């Protein structure tokens, strides 16, 4: 098996009152549940939508063994970190090392072993080389995605399904409001994971001389929080800089405003309604 560097992935959590016993300590079963929940976050960090990825690779992963060693107790409302790494990979499956930490104090560690199986028969099968490559690249600290910037003719076939999923199906925006003639003249960005799956998109066009406008920012639900949206935003801002723009503005849905604040955008003016959703204009200098 291949050894890889541990704990690039770290997931914070707060211990809930329902997770502690009468002595005020979290049980081992809850620690194992935290490890299992962190696995879902790990796949997001790899920019791999789990179901779609397994279907694409025609394989499944089945938990075969979980081990746990408790070293100290976690208590109600403790702020913890769950660390995960894919520590061993071979033809038959994967082994994840997991740790529960409170600050610098290690509370528990364990191992989760998954077998690679045929999704139809449940029989064991070799782990796909493509998945092995993604896991090793992530644990080596490499980027999980790349962003392409180009015209609608080239990127529209990949951007359109993402926007359809997010804006039309998820948010209920009418299709006639989503598709416009502006797309043809925009610079578009699409983020792809290491398997070539398109996951996020956005567009950029001149608003007024010296100011570019970013819009149609959309990230598939299964990879939100993975940094993919920020990568698309940065690519669009780089494109604006290359064109000599002095600033960029956007109309942010109020639920997404914190995301743009973290990227250096500032709100300007009052909230307003756009397509039935509350928005605020936000601006950033370049």
Structural shape: globular
Number of domains: 2
**Radius of gyration, whole Å:** 22 Å
What is the CATH domain class of the largest domain?
Alpha Beta
CATH architecture descriptor of the largest domain: 3-Layer(aba) Sandwich
Span between N and C termini? 47 Å
| Beta fraction | 35-45%
Largest sheet: 8 strands, mixed
Structure description:
This protein has helices spanning 28-45, 50-57, 129-139, 152-170, 175-178, 228-242, 257-262; strands spanning 9-14, 60-70, 79-90, 93-102, 105-117, 145-150, 187-193, 198-208, 211-219, 247-253, 266-267, 272-274, 277-285. The protein folds into two domains: 9-139, Roll (Thiol Ester Dehydrase, Chain A), CATH 3.10.129; 145-285, Gcn5-related N-acetyltransferase (GNAT) (Aminopeptidase, 3-Layer(aba) Sandwich). The chain is an alpha+beta fold and 286 residues long. Helices cover 28% and strands 37% of the residues. The chain has seven helices and 13 strands. Strands 6, 7, 8, 9, 10, 11, 12 and 13 form an eight-stranded mixed β-sheet that branches. Strands 1-3-4-5-2 form a five-stranded antiparallel β-sheet.
Notable features of this structure?
286 residues, alpha+beta, Thiol Ester Dehydrase, Chain A, Aminopeptidase, eight-stranded mixed sheet, five-stranded antiparallel sheet, 7 helices, globular, disordered N terminus
In short:
The chain has 286 residues and is an alpha+beta fold.
List the helices and strands and how they pair.
Blueprint: E1 9-14, H1 28-45, H2 50-57, E2 60-70, E3 79-90, E4 93-102, E5 105-117, H3 129-139, E6 145-150, H4 152-170, H5 175-178, E7 187-193, E8 198-208, E9 211-219, H6 228-242, E10 247-253, H7 257-262, E11 266-267, E12 272-274, E13 277-285
Parallel strand pairs: 9-10
Antiparallel strand pairs: 1-3, 2-5, 3-4, 4-5, 6-7, 7-8, 8-9, 10-13, 11-13, 12-13
